[in-house]
Structures are given as C-alpha cells and as structure tokens.
Amino acid sequence: xxxxxILIFLFIILQSLIQPLFAAVPEGVSKSISTSFELNGSTxxxxxxxxxxxxxxxxxxxxxxxxxxxxxxYGKVSFIWSAIVLIGLAIKQGFGISLYSLILVMFExxxxxxxxxxxxxxxxxxxxxxxELIGNPRLNTxxxxxxxxxxxxxxxxxxxxxxxxxxxxxxxxxxYKVHTIVFFTFIVANIGGSLTPVGNPPLLMGFISKVPFFWxxxxxxxxxxxxxxxxxxxxFIIDSYFYKKETKRPVTKTKTVLKIEGGWNxxxxxxxxxxxxxxxxxWGIAFYVYHVPMPLSELIEILAMLAITFISLxxxxxxxxxxxxxxxxxxxxxxxxFAAIFVCMAPLIAMLRAGTEGPMxxxxxxxxxxxxxxxxxxxxxxxxxxxxxxxxxxxxxxFNTAAAPAAAAGMAPHAFMTGILxxxxxxITAGASFMxxxxxxxxxxxxxxxxxxxxxxxxxxxxxxxxxxxVSILVPLFILIQFIFIL
Length: 487
What we know:
Layout: H1 2-16, H2 27-37, H3 50-65, H4 67-92, H5 95-124, E1 128-130, H6 137-154, H7 156-170, H8 178-187, H9 201-208, H10 215-245, E2 259-261, H11 264-278, E3 285-289, E4 292-295, H12 296-315, H13 318-323, H14 329-353, H15 361-365, E5 368-369, E6 372-373, H16 375-388, H17 391-402, H18 413-419, H19 422-434, H20 444-455, H21 463-485
Antiparallel strand pairs: 1-2, 3-4, 5-6
Helix pairs in contact: 3-4, 3-14, 4-5, 4-14, 5-7, 5-11, 5-12, 5-14, 6-7, 6-8, 6-10, 7-20, 8-10, 9-17, 10-19, 10-21, 11-12, 14-20, 16-17, 16-19, 17-19, 18-19
C-alpha cells in the first residue's frame, strides 16, 4: 500500500516539472483550462473498458485459482491495472489529461469514499454489544430488520458496519452462516438505504442536484418496503432450514442484560451523518490541484471524518477493540482495491457521459423511443451499471440524460425530473439504489462486509459465487418491482 501511494505521488511530482500543480488562478479561468484536460469520452475506443474488466476478473478469479497469491499481492495487481490506465492515457491523450484524470478521481470519488469508510469502520470497531446473543432465525431476522430501518438514516455503510459484528458474534457457533451475511448485504448494505440522501450515494447525488430531501421517501417507500419485506421472509425461511440442520447448540448461559461498550462512539456516528450532508453544500472552492477543484465542503467533510476517526481511537478502550477483533486489514484491502476500480472505470464513465457522441451510443439510444423515455431501460441500465461501476456516477449519467430536454422546456433539471418525468426518476433511483447488491463492488459496504466476515473465519462466496446468490434471489425480485412500480 505504502509503495503504491509513493509511486502515485512520484507520478504527480514528475508532472509538476511540466506545469505547477497548485494553480492559484481565478475560478472562471481554471474552469476553462480544466476543460482542456477533461477526458473526452467521444475520443475513446470501447477497448478502454478492458482494464476495468481485467480488474473485475482479477477480483473474481485470483481468489479462486491462486488464493495465496491474491492474499499477498492484491494491492500490486490492483496497482498494475490502474497504472495501465494512467500510462495508457498519458501516451494516447497526454500527460496532462492522465494526471488530471487521476486527481479528479481522487477528489471526486476515492477520498470521500475511503474517509467515510475509515471513520465508520473505526467508530463501529469501538462499539461492543455485551450480553447473551444466540444466533437463531428470529434474532437474525430482527437484526436485518433493524439494519434495513437504520440504513436510510445512518447510511448503508454506517448501518452495515455497525451491525455486522454483533451479527457475526451471535452466529459464530453456527456451521451454516454464509447465507446470513449474504442477505445482510442485500438488505442492510443496499436496499434498505433507498429512502434518504444519507442512505445511498445515488440519492445523495440527487440531493446535490436539488432533488428534494424527502422525495425518495415519498416515492420509494413502497418498493423498498416490499423488497425488504420479501427478502426478510425469504431469509427467515432459509435460516430456519439451516438452523434445523445444525448438529450442535450453544450452551445457554444465565441471561444477562445487554450492555453497549464504547457507547460514546454512537454520538460520533451523528457527526459522520452531518459531515456527509455538509459535503452536499456549495461553499466554494478551497484550492485547485492541477486545475482540479477541491470543494470547501468536501475538504471539511474529509477533515471532519479524520477528526472523528482520531477521537474514536482516543475514547475507546483497547480491550473493546480487541474483543471486536478489530484490525486495519479490511479497510486497507477495500482501499487498495477500490482505488484501482475508480481509476479503471474513469474512461468508462467518460464514454457514458459522452452520450450519443461516444462509443456507448447504443446504450443511450436504447433509453427512449419516439422521444419518450423507456423507464424499464432506465431502471435496468442504471441498476446494471451500478452493480459493476460506481452507483453515484451511473445515477448522474442517466439523470442528466433523461433531463436533457429540460433546457428547451425552460425548466431546471430537478424540476423537470420531479415534475414532468417522476416515473423516470423513480426508475433511475430504484435501479441505482437496489442493484448495487448484485456484486461485491456494487456498493461501498459490500466489500467491507466480506472482508470483516472473512477475518472472523467465515468463508464467503467468490465474486461469481456471490453473484449466483444475488442473481437467483434478487433478479426475480427486481422484475417484480418493475412490474408493480416502474411504469
């Protein structure tokens, strides 16, 4: 990890010999300069998707065929794929565009992503539920239900990282527990967070685009409740089946009152929520790095989360973290892998944003017929891309595509979408929020949950093994959601 970070910084320093990194120029001037450095998707070939495909296949195949190699070298493999993109862009598009793309990915996606995960991971690692928790179908289903409710208010990452350790602890005695972690990922880490901008990144992107805060709650409550309800019932049935197959039962102790250790960390969770909301505000630009702006609101968010992480480490007893088997390995693994994923998907996002002028024209053309949006296509394409790309950019691509006629109608994009095309916006939002559950990389907490579970000795499914679960269970559910709600 340290070597990879050093190499990236060396890359930046070398570019400083060509052009000063910190450009203290007026905002308007910087915007005009940055336009010339932006990655133009219309100039790219569809072959630029190959590094991203290679990264995904590495995550999927290496742990199966070379598990020891992957465990020791996943950081190097991830770095190689991202280096291929950056070096390729430098050769084909110029060093300036390559450097600009790297810094833009770091500022817009990776830094907010990793510092949010870091703060939540540290906070929840300092919270320990003491008492007798015996994993059985009723208790496990209750935890999933609580997680589904909390996800929209603490965020899917916050709720998932908060509840995954108590859930694992309660079920350590069981032989059959993989299905519990899989359903936890479906419900708590994804679908449950579909009701507020705090819950899921696509909804936050909508809020930043001026979609009202409670719009998702008013429009997506019914499909979210139906999806979570069906999954909870299905989980209870499956868990009851596996529970009966358990050959051993835990020795029940005298019942004790449940106690929370590290309760002060719960207050820090509120601080994280306010930090996320602060990042949606427009407070101007803090500074530029190679003409890439660092918004003041984002800088405040990152600094706040760093401070929250430090405070959590200071106020939590060491014994509490030891009891939680807390280590930095899961956050390091997620950080290395997702840094490469974000870099590798930059050309893909640029191609999508190029619309009908780019190599993804066939996707954009499929979204409408005779000038009218096909909401089913918006639903599945926004969801499908969210399952393999970052859900936030996928949401923005389709939101802006659908809102393209707003200017001709003399309306703001958010007013056009909520007033003229609400059904299309429901399709985009539901697809981007729900379908991140289809793969490990579809939403931020998915990979984190996998890493925490594996560190506690639970052998999680491979990339494709997990998809066997998700496609079998979720795709029929999403078809039902489309039939009922996507008009």
